[in-house]
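ok so i was messing around last nite and threw this chain in just to see what happens. nothing serious, just curious
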Amino acid sequence: MPSVSAHAAVTLAAHVDHVFGVMGNGNAHFLDALARQTSASFTPVRHESGAVVAADAHHRSSGRLAAATTTYGAGFTNTLTALAEAVQAHVPLVLVVGDEPTSGPRPWDVDQIAMASAVGARTYTVGRADAAATTLIAVEHALTYRVPTVLAIPYDVATLDAGPVPDAPPPRLPGPLAPRGPFAEAGVRETAHALATARRPLLLAGRGAWLAGAGETLGKIADVTGALTVTTALGQGVFPRPEFDLGVAGGFGARGAMELVRRADVVWVVGASLNQFTMRFGELFAPGTRVLQVDVAPAATHPHVGGYVRGDAATVAGAVLDELHAHPDLSPSGWRESVDVAAARRHEPGTGTAPDGRLDPRSAAARIAELLPADRVVVSDGGHFIAWANMYWPVASPDRMIMVGTAFQSIGLGFPSVVGAALARPGATVVLTTGDGGGLMALADLESAVRVAGGRGMAVVWNDAAYGAEVHVYGRKGLVREPMLIPAVDFAGLATAVGAHGVTVRTVDDLDALAAWAARPAAERPFLLLDLIVSPGVVAPYQEEIVRANS
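result:
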């Protein structure tokens, strides 16, 4: 008869196509049932944190429910940083773990429910009589609230007979949040009137607009009002007219583009939380700019917002577009045709070689942008270097810029992100951008990235022999620098050792190796790792903003 583990595996597999994990005592029977009784694929990684990260990246690139699995105890505790990141980033994910037996904890067990709760994840524990139903509840909770859940299988329950696996109803998920009541209706009319009569209207959209499917409608609103557009880092590509898009708002934005943003007289913010980085620590908009917002949060998410409508981005955008079509004074402002958007979006090209003799990361980023395949997904670890990809490597849509780690301000989650993105986008080239500090933390899953992505994968390591963010903030304050420094590491050699093609890049000309790699069919080339020996003296503009804000 099917076991408790089989009930969990079969029920979960009805809602996912990939599970990422590391096998151990606590999840061995679950994985056996997953392989024998379902069509879901299991992809092994080398560290339990990487299991959650790979699942997280798979969701962000595919939109599908994420799933990961580890054993109990140390296997579970190894996931906590990645689990906290998924919570902060609102990723629907089910983490299947072993747990202490029902007879009580053993010396190596820990209170996993408390630990999961501490980072914001709810735990559901299966029993002999309710394993399928409990699994479905965990799935429904993850999808409804867009948050990770933990599905725990006690050690002494895992192999118990549970009878035939019952047919489970599909999850019932809430519909889009519609604006309700006279205040919301007035807010929609106010937004439409403000955009229709603005001289320099601007639309700012984030990942929430993409998740709601609002991009096409927002494009129509921009067209009928003559608005320029701008996005958050996680909203890149949501607008359909790139010729009128200013790129990423905040410290990743080009200087000329941000000057145009400050000229806007009306800004409508859609599906973006307006965090401190997007807002340039309060300096993004000029004083007197009228800022309106729509989001699903209970209230406006920044004090500069003067008008707020709570609701689904696509639903509210549709209502605003209807109001605009009925507005007697509607005509395109003409603002976007009067400015040179392409010139405004240009970033500094760099100097090739920095004064210290090492590579200027701006020059490297610009040259890499010229050589990367157009069909690409960029996955980013956390660290000072995150600016270079966001500034120089535009992507076609928000599900092609995967920043795992930034929500929880973590580093060291880069290499396993490649695994999830590569399986979510089997036709695209997956490009990892990581630093030497984060790269060393995630080294266990360098092999996983090389094995899974193969010739469709590449990594760019910004190797400045330092924890760059700490150097630029605390080094300037006179703190001892030795803890901020990293001895020289040969990442090209490490990559070669696990089957990749590693290239040390000291000059822009060395990037010809990327041109040669990109010219070969993906099936005939290995994973490529570019070990960029970059200058620690070139500081990203967003980092300068952080320094100013903290001074």
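not much to say yet. The chain is about 35% helix and 15% strand.
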